[in-house]
Write a structure and sequence with these properties.
The chain is α/β, with parallel strands linked by helices. Helices cover about 55% and strands about 10% of the residues.
């Protein structure tokens, strides 16, 4: 009988242990805690019975039977509950397909010689933001976070444009731009250190001498030092808002800010009983302003190709009521090129090259895309009489490609870009050649006639 008890006890505990291992391996943390509690309680119960039996405190066989029965029943229940929860649990759907390896072939795009669509906003891919809907979001005072490729005009082409409209209509009193960087800490947003120039130092010392006539000037100079602190940009925003101003605040490249700066911004954007609160630990003050006085906006660049950036946690993202992706605005880019004085045919060619190179970047053939900044500078150089291919080589080709560990450019990527440029501007070269030939013939006839 005792041997039967031992065998049943061993197998029962093994079953209990297997059920617990399966539960903690495959189930969610909430269900794991439930199985952990059952297993721990049963283990303590069994261990207590074994200790009491070993010291002779319990000799009744019925107690041993109850322990073994409870252990077996618990093991069966745990296995049954595991099977039920496992069937009920649905595996999450995959949101993204596995990424394909980066091709090593040269860039070949069928898009290069073709002209862009008549309506650039209807091209394939991510359409640009609807201006009227976005304007309504800004007018409602929503906090807005824009992300997208570098040079797509997030800060000045979107946020400043719409906040500027609000300023012109009198719905905002000003815009404060706060550039973010990894070296910017929380105290920089509250009280920034600034060097003191000689004239400012003399002026401050004179004021201190009037306030502290008993102190020597040399002592005051040592106390003052060569640095002072001025009001930081975020504290300035709250101070001005307390006085009644309605301000738009733009954190440019927010995910470059340090952790301490992001934590301070997170707390400042947290609405508390209809107010924003800024806790200035440098002075011990707490500045409170109504929600309608400040509109928070931010931009960021997301992706592995952007170094010195940090992930934005869910708490900070949740403070923004609108989070939008901003792609390159091809319609705006065309207008920029036209304002540079370029003819429509040349504008179409430059836009065609930009589209082909951006497609190549998305497919992993290039290290960076042709940004709006690059395109604008390229158009300015071409409008001044520069050759499109030569100016491209001088301005941005080496900016888009990868480099090896010694700093040498990827010749395959350079050849691919030059191939696109050659295919796009081949017809233009023919026209230029005909023009030069005709000009030479006219010059020759004129000289002969003379």
């Amino acid at each position: 009988m005792d041997k039967w008890f031992a065998v049943v006890g061993v197998f029962g505990y093994i079953g209990l242990l297997i059920g617990y291992i399966l539960a903690v391996t495959y189930l969610s943390p909430e269900k794991r805690r439930m199985f952990h509690g059952v297993f721990t309680s049963m283990s303590v119960f069994i261990l207590g019975g074994m200790i009491l039996q070993s010291v002779g405190a319990i000799t009744d066989v019925h107690f041993v039977e109850s322990v073994l029965s409870a252990m077996g029943i618990t093991a069966v229940l745990m296995l049954g509950l595991y099977v039920y929860l496992r069937q009920k649990k649905r595996p999450p759907e995959k949101s993204f397909q596995p990424s394909t390896p980066r091709p090593s072939l040269s860039i070949r795009s069928e898009r290069a010689p073709s002209l862009p669509a008549e309506n650039p906003d209807e091209e394939e891919g991510q359409p640009f933001l609807d201006s009227s809907s976005l304007e309504n979001i800004f007018r409602k005072g929503f906090s807005v976070l824009l992300y997208g490729p570098t040079g797509s005009g997030k800060t000045y082409g979107v946020i400043f444009e719409h906040l500027g409209k609000l300023v012109k209509r009198g719905e905002r009193d000003g815009i404060v731009l706060i550039p973010c960087s990894d070296g910017m800490e929380d105290y920089d947003l509250l009280s920034k250190p600034m060097p003191i120039g000689p004239r400012d130092k003399v002026r401050i010392l004179q004021e201190l001498e009037k306030e502290f006539p008993d102190l020597d000037q040399s002592a005051l100079s040592r106390i003052l030092g060569d640095w002072t602190r001025v009001e930081g940009p975020l504290r300035e925003v709250f101070r001005r808002a307390q006085k009644g101003e309605r301000l738009g605040v733009v954190f440019d490249e927010l995910n470059r800010a340090s952790r301490s700066a992001r934590n301070l911004i997170l707390k400042a954007m947290d609405p508390v009983l209809g107010h924003y609160e800024l806790h200035d630990f440098t002075s011990g003050e707490v500045l409170r302003v109504p929600l309608e006085k400040i509109q928070f906006c931010a931009t960021c660049n997301l992706g592995a190709s952007y170094s010195q950036t940090h992930d934005l946690d869910e708490s900070l993202l949740d403070r923004f009521q609108s989070v939008l992706f901003v792609d390159y605005n091809t319609g705006l880019e065309e207008r920029i090129l036209e304002e540079e004085g370029l003819p429509p045919a040349t504008v179409s060619q430059l836009m065609s090259v930009a589209g082909a190179l951006r497609d190549a970047y998305r497919m992993g053939h290039l290290n960076a895309p042709l940004s709006t900044r690059h395109l604008k500078n390229w158009g300015r150089a071409v409008s001044g009489g520069g050759d499109p291919r030569e100016t491209a080589r001088m301005l941005w080709v080496d900016r888009l490609i990868a480099h090896d560990r010694h700093g040498y450019p990827d010749e395959e990527q350079v050849a691919g870009i030059l191939e696109i440029l050659a295919a796009t501007f081949a017809e233009t070269d023919g026209v230029r050649g005909d023009v030069r030939k005709t000009s030479q013939e006219e010059t020759s006839r004129t000289s002969q006639g003379g």
